[in-house]
């Protein structure tokens, strides 16, 4: 999977949410390159450059949008792996989930999530949340360019 480095890694198994997220980015001129991963196991393979992703271009995303309820490996397990890795832990990781469970919220922050956003149920609310996420994390926030 050679090519330019990814800016946003969207880890989401719901096709409608993926489509709406991508459409919202485009509508709001957020032209960053997005890679969509649809299950937890594949997300870990992508992040740690193994199996079908061992040939992908080196580099880390500028932002990870992470759903918690994923097939194969949960979002919390992915978050733990990201924040436990020296090279990956600096990537802003936003939990974008339908889970309103207090335990998920607490565990996400305990594992190092940078933000926890419950997906709004309505179309317009979801679009507004995604637009604001992209604008803040990609335009306003400063992240290290190199390993620390």
The first-level CATH class is given as Alpha Beta
Order of helices and strands: EHEHEHEHEH
Structural class comes to alpha/beta
Helical run tally? 5
Number of domains: 1
> What is the rounded Rg?
14 Å
Relevant CATH superfamily: Response regulator
CATH architecture: 3-Layer(aba) Sandwich
Strand content: 5-15%
Q: Please provide the count of β strands.
A: 5
Largest sheet: 5 strands, parallel
CA(first)-CA(last) distance: 26 Å
Which shape, going by the Cα principal axes? Answer: globular
Q: Do you know the CATH topology?
A: Rossmann fold
Strand arrangement in the largest pleated sheet: 2-1-3-4-5
What does this structure look like?
The structure is a single chain. The protein is 40% helix and 14% strand. It is built from 5 helices and 5 strands. It has a 5-stranded parallel beta sheet, sandwiched between helices. Strand 4, helix 4 and strand 5 form a beta-alpha-beta unit.
List the helices and strands and how they pair.
Layout: E1 8-11, H1 15-27, E2 34-37, H2 40-47, E3 63-66, H3 75-84, E4 93-97, H4 102-111, E5 115-118, H5 123-140
Parallel strand pairs: 1-2, 1-3, 3-4, 4-5
Helix pairs in contact: 1-5, 2-3, 3-4
């Amino acid at each position: 999977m050679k090519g330019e480095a990814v800016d946003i890694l969207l880890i989401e198994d719901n096709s409608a949410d993926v489509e709406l997220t991508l459409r919202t980015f485009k509508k709001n001129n957020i032209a960053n390159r997005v890679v969509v991963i649809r299950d937890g196991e594949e997300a870990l393979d992508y992040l740690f450059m193994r199996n079908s992703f061992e040939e992908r271009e080196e580099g880390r995303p500028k932002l990870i949008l992470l759903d918690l309820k994923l097939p194969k490996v949960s979002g919390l397990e992915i978050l733990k792996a990201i924040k436990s890795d020296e090279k990956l832990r600096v990537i802003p990781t936003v939990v974008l989930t339908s889970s309103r469970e207090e335990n998920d919220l607490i565990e996400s922050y305990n594992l190092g999530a940078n933000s926890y956003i419950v997906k709004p149920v309505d179309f317009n609310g979801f679009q507004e949340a995604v637009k604001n996420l992209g604008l803040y994390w990609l335009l306003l926030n400063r992240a290290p360019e190199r390993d620390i």
